[in-house]
TrEMBL record:
Lineage: Bacteria, Bacillati, Bacillota, Bacilli, Bacillales
PROSITE patterns recorded: ZF_DKSA_2
Segments forming dksA C4-type zinc fingers: 57-81
Protein name: DksA C4-type domain-containing protein
Organism: Priestia endophytica
Highest rank taxon of the organism: Bacteria
């Protein structure tokens, strides 16, 4: 069901890793931290896919609609999607 989202997350992970490691010496520490935070979010989403809890709102326990997850696959809550 989430195969296209999983693929997108894998691509995002690769791009973020490349960006993080390619620019380690020359990038502002704050920028590196933003990249690392994004990478952590992607890794968390991939783990949730692996263990079968992807798409479950971490605040309410409700299922986040697929179309919303497609827009922001790293979302932890449905509310996060509304404010992103």
């Amino acid at each position: 069901m989430y195969e296209s989202i999983r693929h997108e997350l894998l691509v995002m992970r690769d791009e973020l890793k490349q960006s993080l490691y390619r620019n380690t010496a020359s990038t502002n520490p704050q920028v590196r931290q933003y990249i690392q935070d994004d990478l952590d979010d992607v890794e968390r989403a991939l783990l949730k896919l692996e263990i079968g809890v992807f798409g479950v709102d971490e605040s309410t326990g409700a299922q986040i609609p697929y179309h919303k997850l497609s827009a922001l696959p790293t979302a932890r809550t449905e509310e996060e999607i509304m404010y992103h």
